[in-house]
Every structure is written in C-alpha cells, then in structure tokens.
Amino acid sequence: MQKISLFIILSITLTLPIAFAQEELGSSQKITLSSDNTAYQEGDVITITGAIEKVIPDMPVSLQLFFEKNLIQVAQVKVSQDGKFSDTFTAAGPQWQNEGKILIKANYGTDVSTELIITFFKNTEGEFASNYELKIPDAGTSDIQYTLKGGTVSSMKLDQENISLMISISTNTDGNLNISLPRDNIDSKTNDGQDIDYIVLIFQQDSSIPIQTNYTELETSDGFRAINIPIKNGDKIIQIIGTHVIPEFGAIAAVILAVSIISIIAVSAKSRLSFMPRI
User: Fold this and answer.
1) CB 59 within 8 A of CB 85
2) Which band of pLDDT confidence, cut at 50, 70 and 90, is reported for residue 119?
3) Per-residue pLDDT tens for 229-261?
4) What is the pLDDT of residue 257?
5) How distant, in Å, are the alpha carbons of 75, 141, 180, 200 from that of 177?
6) For residues 198 and 242, is the Cβ–Cβ distance under 8 A?
7) Which of 29, 50, 209, 242 could pair with 25 in a Cys bridge, judged by C-beta atoms 3.0 to 4.6 Å apart?
8) How far apart are CA 72 and CA 66, in angstroms?
9) More confident residue, 160 or 9
10) For residue 79, what are the contacts with CB-CB under 8 A and spacing of at least 6?
11) What is the pLDDT of residue 109?
C-alpha cells in the first residue's frame, strides 16, 4: 500500500510542472508562423517556419493544414532549444484537388495556437480559361487567350511606340499569368526570323520603376507563343516587349502610305514624260 502511494505521489510530482507550465504559459505564450510564399501551385513545396516564445522541453508543435473544414495534412514538428521550428509540405496528392485558401494552424500545448492562410492553385500551365478582346489600332480586334491566378485582368493594350503589350491587372495574392501571344500581334525575332526572348517588365503598386522578371515559355507554333509569367501581390502592370508589333502600320496609315506611294509614282512618271524629247 505504501509503495502504491509513493508511485501516485511521484507521478503527480512529475506531471505537475508540465501542467503548471502549460497553464502559466497559456496566457503569455506567443507563436509566430510564416511561409516562404503566399501562393503555391500544384507540386510546389511549401516551407513553414515559426518560433515559440517559451519552450516546454520535448513538446512538439502540431501543424495542421485545412481546406475549408477538411483536414488535408498534419505533422508533429520538433522545436529547437531556441524556440524555432520548420517543416515542409508538398502541395500534391488526392487531398489537393481544389483551388482556394489553405488554413495552416499551429498548436503548442492545449491552449496555444496561431493561424496562417495561403492560396493554392491547380497546375494549369498552357491551359487558357479566359479571352480578352484586344483592340488592334486601326485593324479591328484579336482574341487573347489567358489564365490569371491570383488576380484579374482589367485591360490589355498594344503599345506600338514601345513595341509591347501592356496588361493591367489587379492582384490579391501571388500567382501567375498564362498567356498565348499571337504572332500576328506581337512577336520577338532576330533579323533572320529566329525566335528570341521577350522582355517582361512588372510595374508594382505605387511605383513607376519597372522590374524585369523571368518567364517560362510553354509552347510555340507558327501562330502563337504561350508563356507563363509569375506575379506578386501588388503587381499592377505587365509589359511584354517584343521586336515588333503587327500591324506595324494601322489600316489608315497603310492607306496614307499607299496614296503616298501612288503619288510618288505618278510624279515620277510625269517627270519622266516631261523630259522625253518631242518628235
């Protein structure tokens, strides 16, 4: 009987510090949580990092990922002595079937938690869900196929002076733009007809100085070039610069040019006739 009493007392003694620690830390404990991006595409690796203000020895952080109210992934993550932790998740598999907001919840103990929201997109490179009716100066319109993840397109405009396509966007998170560029509207070639890279500039909110960004060429054909451009939350204008835009002369300009050529031919013919010897 005495041995049983001693065992109970010892058990209570060992568990009391942890219980008191959790109760004491619950009101003052802080957890920071961050991700290496705000939006991810199918197949991306999501890196989650965080820090615990007050560490309880041998207690892990529980990370849970939810889509709407459905738990899609969970992990128990070790906390270092300085309170830091890190883990990775791959955005792929049967649980990652729907696009939208992903809630990441970190729990430490019973009463301490924090949350982080990221955005998930399905991999749709080369697929185009929308059309924009682009006005071609003095030459009608052309449909531009695109898919924008992370925002909306408000306008597209051909800038013949700067040999570029200007795309105005409104963003709410990081994402990407898949766009099919008709060669009849904008292209980038060498003098001997070989494809060369476009120059892609990004104008961010409240900034007039553009930033050049890389893009991925998805597909090429005789009629178009499809590219994928990454965007960041706050981007407002995408400028795609080629070597020429088509038509380089609008319909009215072509008529004026034709009239000018005809006039020159007529004047030249009249001049030649005036110098012909009379018989």
Assistant:
1) no
2) very high
3) 999 999 999 999 999 887 654 333 333 333 433
4) 34
5) 32, 21, 10, 12
6) yes
7) 29
8) 6
9) 160
10) 52, 55, 59, 60, 61, 85, 108
11) 83
Burial 226-256 (b: 16+ CB within 10 A, else e): bbbbbbbbebbbbbbbbeebbbeeeeeeeee
Q: Which CATH superfamily is domain 27-121 in?
A: Macroglobulin (MG2) domain (2.60.40.1930)
Amino acid at position 180, single letter: S
pTM: 0.69
Is residue 185 a contact partner of residue 164, using CB atoms and an 8 Å limit? no
163-195 confidence digits (pLDDT tens): 999 999 999 899 999 999 999 899 999 999 899
How would DSSP label each residue in 13-61?
HHHHHHHHHHHHHHTT--EEEEES-SEEETTPEEEEEEEESSPPTTPPE
What CATH number labels 130-251? 2.60.40
Q: How many residues does the chain have?
A: 279
Does residue 110 carry a pLDDT above 50? yes
Minimal CA–CA distance to 205: which of 232, 228, 230?
A: 232
CB-side neighbour CA atoms (13 Å) of 275? 6
Q: Which residues of 109-142 are buried (b: 16+ CB within 10 A; e: fewer)?
A: beebbbebebbbbeebeeeeeeebebebbebeeb
